[in-house]
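Follow-up to my earlier ticket, as requested here are the two runs.
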Amino acid sequence: MYSASNRFIRAFFGCGRQPVGSSALWSFVRNQQAGISGVSAPSPSQLGQVVRLEELLKKNREEVVDIWLGYHADATARRVGSALSAQEYGTFVDHAKESPMFVLPLTRPGGYETLLVQCQMPFVLVTGLEEFKRSGVSAPPYLTLTHYPELCDSHGVVLVRGDVIHDKGMNLEEARTVMELIRAFYTSPDDYPLVHTFNHKPAQFNFGALLQKLNVTA
């Protein structure tokens, strides 16, 4: 899994927990390939390997979502759950293909940590940017998201599971926050322009505006 050849960010200036100054913050190297083939799937790739799909098919949409969220409510299991509408998922897939990478600030004591988001639908990999800069493709992921579209046609819903891989890098509450932020930035017409700019017009990307939008302070 994670064997796609996305272009990746090589050098960043002023990132991590340091104050951010200008829209020319980032330096991108476009001619290199990001393979993340060293990561094994923490969750099964098929919904039927997670739940009894034949039983779930008997439920209506609301019941399916309630069952799924309840299943992922166990705080000791190091996983979180969510659900997308069929329309949201279609938008997510289109935008992830068009703009497969993004960065998100995660509030930490004394500042924030910058996360690197890599989309290879139906999977999303989240790791620390500094970890990625140090270790490249062998950087330990903090969180992986797996999307299950098996009920998209019948129930109009896509189930999402997030697995916390590196619990020292991210706790469950942070994982829920990051999962919902990724959803918002890849599906909302108000938020996606930042993702598009990051991928296609890096010189115009304003990380300070992202911090302001998310009310994150250095």
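Run two:
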Amino acid sequence: MTADLHLPWGTTARPPWALEVTPERAGWTYAGLRVLVLPAGGEVTFATGDEEMLVLPLAGAATVECDGLRMELAGRASVFAAVTDFAYVPRDATVTIRGEGRLALPSTRATRRLSPRYGAARDVPVELRGAGSASRQVNNFCAPDAFGCDRLVAVEVLTPGGNWSSYPPHKHEDDRTYDDGRVEAALEEIYYFEVSGGVPGDPAGPVGYQRVYGTDRRPIDVLAEVRAGDVVLVPYGYHGPSMAAPGYHLYYLNVLAGPGPKRTMACVDDPRHGWIRDSWADQPVDPRLPMTGTGAL
């Protein structure tokens, strides 16, 4: 499970999607991601099948129609410019998207059919996590406590240039409670990256780095150099750090889903590095944060 976990932009394209990662393509059961690139006046209609999805503007704006509901997404100029509004569309639905720009559609197989809904940018909880060179911003737009779904969980992370995020390394591959009270959930996870100053498909664009490594029981070994539009799949193992090169901010969209009956992001740190969290108490948060405000476009 170490091959085909880094998917550069363009390697998974299948019209109308500029990027398509289905559970089958990933080799697992639940989590998926698509990216739609619309020209001015563009329009796409598709069926969700057995998946619930979000429509999240990465750059641009769109109108989403589903079950007779019309949702106007004001969007944003880029992922580094603002927190965005978004739309939720359920399984077994027909969806039409009109607009211009680049839109991400995180997804997962769902058992319940919920109603389509609009998520306002002003309601997105923005968290500053870590400190010092491990400072980052987390936009918890579809975290378990922020927005209701059947199984889908998704958040955005913004890491200032030179900083590390997804750190200390952590994993969520087993449903278990440890003797010390820590709780871990089994979750599949997708990382979708953008880098400031880069555009998807530019092989000479600025880079970041993503690490994934395993245990003796389940070995995995990935160190991916990522550019705008790239994806890294995390089927199991410790993941982190996500490294932003000096001079270039790093963005990633996390898509998570698993078999558990309750939506969660429960994870456990690599015990060799968990002590790093305690070191943050004496360090200030990077003054470049928040990078995109706290929920207002």
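The only thing I checked on run two: The chain is about 5% helix and 45% strand. Let me know what else you need.
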